[in-house]
Amino acid sequence: LGSMKNQPEGKVVQETETSQIDLKLPGEKEKRVTTKTEVESRIRQIGECATYCGEYSVSRSDDEARYFIDDLAIPGTTNTISMDCKGIVKVGYDLSDSKATISEDTISVSIPKAKINDNYIIWESVQYKEKNSILNPIEFDQYKQMVSEIEAEGLADVEAQGIYEKAEEN
Question: Among 153, 133, 139, which Cα is nearest to 87's?
């Protein structure tokens, strides 16, 4: 158990005494020295910088059956998964690989080539159909494989549209 005392609220006190001393000389400009390490550390704090985002739409279907001998499918064991979805590929720069150079009054920053920062499916856009077989049920690995194939196909699609060039422009 405890009690709380009413504390007086803080108040702002105006400065009453004005100083007659001016530390700046007329025409003097204050200069700040910036070091290479300071510039690089501030840029690295940013981490990743995405400069372009490409969208893709992919439809994919996959049938899987059990086989008796290498090429002879067992009737009634085919399962089918069909997915239609949209995805996003973000392209940008990993600024931890950047380098800074400082001359008298110029700071130059070199950044590496643009790369894929992220590639993912928008799960709210996924529409799927499946036809399951009792003799060959759909396994989770089939979904994982299909998602990775969709992401690879979407990446190839946006690369064909020139996503790296657009990232460089931005």
Answer: 153
Alpha-carbon distance 97 to 47, whole Å?
A: 9
Collapse the DSSP code of 17 into the 3-class scheme (helix H, G, I; strand E, B; otherwise coil) and give the result. Answer: coil
Q: How far apart are the first and last CA of the chain?
A: 61
pLDDT in tens, 48-107: 888 899 999 998 888 776 666 677 777 777 788 889 999 999 999 888 888 888 777 788
Report the residue count for the chain: 170
How does 20-56 read in b/e, with b if 16+ C-beta sit within 10 Å? eeeeeeeeeeeeeeeeeeebbeebeeeeebbebbbeb
Gap between the Cα atoms of 29 and 69, Å rounded: 86
| CA 77 – CA 139 distance, rounded (Å) | 13
Residues in contact with 152: Cβ distance below 8 Å, sequence separation at least 6, in sequence order: none
